[in-house]
Each structure stands twice: as structure tokens, then as C-alpha cells.
Amino acid sequence: SAVISQKPSRDICQRGTSLTIQCQVDSQVTMMFWYRQQPGQSLTLIATANQGSEATYESGFVIDKFPISRPNLTFSTLTVSNMSPEDSSIYLCSVRSQSSYEQYFGPGTRLTVT
Amino acid sequence: GESVGLHLPTLSVQEGDNSIINCAYSNSASDYFIWYKQESGKGPQFIIDIRSNMDKRQGQRVTVLLNKTVKHLSLQIAATQPGDSAVYFCAENISTGNQFYFGTGTSLTVIP
Fold it and tell me: Is the Cβ–Cβ distance between B35 and B89 less than 8 Å?
């Protein structure tokens, strides 16, 4: 399995500001994803991070609000822009193995917007 | 997207007993499934997976059963330990697509 790290692990931010979350994987992976998990709820896919091109966003998520970069096969960033308290959530990076469909998650970034 | 529940089912078991966590999935075209364990403050941890050409798969102390007829998945944990206390999610995927759809989750509490 891949080892995934995220930075920061948590942050408290003021509304109207932006936060960039970093995801680093210890091996080259085919696919990287960003999920959101609101308190006490399940996981919702925000977007698929594509290397060298624009991310593919799921319904309800837009690039202006959640810009994503993936400059190479082991690194991606998610920015939460112009934050509001409704953005308070855990943001999770996830990767899929090159050789199978197994999907693994990072430790998450716990974001609180005040 | 698929259903995302607002109420987390709970299951309490005595230490040493077996646990069974159930999941009903929604898409009959789903052909790959994963069970995840999520402890408080951590990301989901891959436990075991199963493909639709199987109806049972065993790991260390865990067994996943798949019933495609009724679109039901279960995770059995043998000799449950306090360290098994966590929220367990099932996730379904259609191999031709990217997205995994996650179930509501079940909170397992092991009573010492």
C-alpha cells in the first residue's frame, strides 16, 4: 500500500481566506483524488486530480472554489478558497494503485472556519 | 451521487464476540468493493476488498461476503478486540469509472 502524507493536519481559518492542503505519496500512482468528509458523515468525492491538466470535478464542486494542482505523479494540492463556516470539514487525499483498483487514504486535514 | 446518510448506525459488541457489519449498495453494475476502517481523527484505512466474481473473501480475522442478488455486502470480524472500535465504511465502484461511492458508515464499539 502507498504511504500518504498531508499538510497541514489541521487548521483554523477565518472566513474569506484560503487554505492550500498538500498531499504527498511515497510512490508513483495512477490516480489521485480529493474527498470531503463533513462531521459525522460519509465521504464525498470533490475531484480527480489529473497530472499536468485540469482536475475533473464532481457535481456540486467547482474549480474556482476548489482549485487543484497535480504537477507530478506523487504530489497534489487542494485549495479551499474564500472559506465560509460551511467549509469546515475533513479533507482527504486518496490514491489508487497502478496495478489494481485498491484505493488508499491520507490522514486527512481537519479544517475549521470561523 | 449515491446516497450519503445523515444518521450513523451503531453496533456494540462484547470483546471476544464476532461482529457483523452490513452494507446495502445501490448500483447493480458495481463490481468492486472495499471495506474501510476509520478511527477517530484518522483517515480511512483499507481493510479488505472483493470483486463481483467472488462471494466471499477472507483476511486476517475479517471476512467479506457479497450477495449480488440482493446487493448486500457484509464484514465479519472474528474475536472482536477493543482496537476494532471505529467507524466502518463500505465503498462500491464500477471498474469502468473512477468514483467510489461510500456507504453511510457503521460505528462499532467494543465493550471490554
Answer: yes
User: Does the pLDDT value for residue B45 go beyond 60?
Assistant: yes
Q: How confident is the model at residue A11, as a pLDDT?
A: 98
Dihedral class, residue B79 (left if φ above 0, else alpha if ψ from -120 to 50, else beta) = left
Report residues of chain A scoring pLDDT below 70: 98
Determine contact, residues B45/B38, Cβ cutoff 8 Å: yes
Interface of B with A in 55-74 (CB under 8 A): none
Cross-chain residue pair A58–B103, CB shorter than 8 Å: no
User: What distance in Å separates residue B45's CA from the closest CA in chain A?
Assistant: 7
Q: Say which of A56, A58, A108 has its CB closest to residue B1.
A: A58
Chain A residues with CB-CB distance to B31 below 8 A: none
Cβ partners under 8 Å of residue A29, min gap 6: A2, A73, A74, A95, A96, A97, A98
